[in-house]
Design a protein that fits this description.
There is one protein chain. By secondary structure, the chain is mainly α. It contains 14 helices and no strands. Helix 2 runs antiparallel to helix 9. It starts with a helix and ends with a helix. 37% of the residues are buried.
């Protein structure tokens, strides 16, 4: 059955109105950069938060909360100074899933050194995501950004090899994966409406890939947006193109709100009466329709 774009748009708007409130930010890693006012702190905290944004929300927040507490009122300044306070911070770092304590120490040492080599003005990293003409070139721009961090990590490591944990953290530049975490970072930096920050001016919201986390992957299937079973970089742009039909200028408008369906409403992409019957998307959901015989 063809998608009814008007109905889907209407239901997405209902979802947006439901979750467009500050108290829902605590269910997302964006709660960390939202605590800061200085654009330099926002950008630094955003990139760190997105790189570690894999796993469930509780695990992500459990790791990041003490990290930002130890980095003090201005994580940017703490990293840029790299004084005794910073040394204490490095010692306090914990293991996080694929990253050992040493991996995390290497990453933050590298981050600090990179910041020390950049001009103290916002934005810090937009130029690393655009070409010589200041243009964002999709997947290749993200790969170049990953290569930049890969080379910087190797400088810190010296003769030591890049570990699996560090490679996973920044991602493989040559991989055809959806690059979800850096796509999420781009969304935060590029969009200038709730809940995002709009710090980057040379990259437009309709240029960046859709962040295909597990919740979005399930939802776009049960909403009939795609029947693909695997998701890579190509699909991230295809899904962006789909949402451009609803909002040409801002196709990532509904990303935050859709992920709340998975994170807060616990959607499993299978019919469960207590979840599905009260869901704002039930009228456009294939799972709900099949459960009711429609």
């Amino acid at each position: 059955m063809p998608i009814d774009f008007n109905l889907l748009h209407s239901k997405l708007e209902d979802l947006r109105k439901k979750y467009e409130h500050l108290h829902y930010l605590d269910s997302d890693p964006i709660c960390f950069p939202k605590r800061y006012k200085d654009p330099l702190d926002i950008e630094v905290v955003s990139l760190i938060s997105c790189l570690y944004a894999y796993g469930n929300v509780r695990s992500i927040q459990g790791f990041l909360k003490p990290v930002f507490l130890d980095l003090g009122p201005s994580p940017y300044q703490t990293l840029r100074r790299a004084d005794k306070t910073f040394s204490t911070f490095l010692k306090n770092l914990k293991v996080y899933r694929f990253q050992t304590k040493t991996d995390n120490q290497i990453f933050f040492q590298t981050f600090a050194r990179v910041l020390q080599g950049l001009d103290a003005k916002s934005p810090l990293f937009e130029s690393k995501l655009t070409n010589g003409q200041g243009n964002f070139v999709g997947e290749s721009s993200i790969s170049i950004f990953q290569s930049f961090w890969e080379e910087e990590l190797k400088i810190t490591l010296g003769k030591r090899k890049l570990t699996y944990g560090l490679q996973f953290l920044i991602g493989k530049p040559e991989a055809k994966s959806p690059k979800k975490r850096l796509s999420l970072f781009l969304r935060w930096m590029v969009r200038n409406s709730y809940p995002d920050f709009g710090l980057y001016q040379n990259i437009q919201p309709n240029q960046i890939p859709f962040p295909l986390d597990v919740h979005i992957q399930k939802l776009i299937q049960i909403l009939g947006i795609t029947n693909r079973k695997s998701f890579g970089a190509k699909e991230a742009y295809l899904i962006k193109e789909f949402f451009k039909k609803i909002n040409p200028a801002d196709p990532l408008l509904y990303d935050f709100y859709l992920t709340r369906v998975g994170i807060i409403e616990r959607c499993t992409a299978k019919y469960q009466k207590d979840i599905c019957e009260v869901c704002y998307l039930k009228e456009v959901c294939l799972v709900f329709g099949s459960a009711t015989g429609n």
